[in-house]
Automatic annotation (TrEMBL):
InterPro entries: DinB-like, DinB/YfiT-like. It comes from the Bacteria. This is Putative damage-inducible protein DinB. Residues 33-167 form the DinB-like domain. It comes from Hymenobacter luteus. The lineage of its organism: Bacteria, Pseudomonadati, Bacteroidota, Cytophagia, Cytophagales.
């Protein structure tokens, strides 16, 4: 998949996604990172109870469960955008309000086991979708949240977004449980 080891240009995504794109190591395939992340996540969450997964590292911050469902919601939206753009759809795609999605998800009321099962299903679908695209589809540009975005950038953003949340889990949540 050498067509994916070249990081997207800054003109292929909105500036606020730079953080996520940069979390994919240079020369690394973001789809490989998407394949590796489930094992990392499950290792970090191993043995966590439902009560522990409701932990918030500070007042007003999302719980571990809410963060996981946020990652799933975002992955679905990025994959949907990638599908439309890869298929040549040029209709501008709207943004989404993550701060409205999280409370509406009722994540804290769900068993962690169910969220992790959903995570596996979403990731399998994401990898299947991105794996189905021909190399030229990754170069296609569309518009999302009023900014240009390429299918390649969406692959990087998906993996980088989860990498960002895995870091938060390691650095801000898990130390409070020790």
């Amino acid at each position: 998949m050498s067509h994916l080891t070249t990081r997207p240009a800054a003109t292929e995504y909105a500036p606020f996604y730079e953080t996520y794109v940069r979390l994919i190591p240079a020369g690394h395939d973001p789809l490989q990172q998407l394949r590796e992340q489930p094992a990392t996540l499950k290792q970090l969450l191993h043995g966590l109870t439902d009560e522990q997964a409701r932990l918030r590292y500070a007042p007003g911050k999302w719980s571990i469960k809410e963060s996981l469902v946020h990652v799933l919601d975002t992955e679905r939206i990025f994959a949907y955008r990638a599908l439309r753009i890869a298929r040549g759809d040029q209709q501008p795609l709207p943004g989404f309000d993550q701060d409205a999605y999280v409370p509406a998800s009722d994540a804290d009321e769900r068993p962690l086991e169910d969220i992790l099962a959903e995570y596996d299903a979403v990731r399998a679908a994401t990898l299947s979708l991105f794996g189905s695209f021909r190399p030229e589809a990754y170069e296609r540009l569309g518009t999302a949240s009023t900014f240009p975005v390429s299918v390649r950038a969406l692959a990087y953003m998906t993996a980088g977004h989860e990498a960002h949340h895995l870091t938060l889990l390691q650095e801000r949540y898990l130390p409070l449980l020790k």
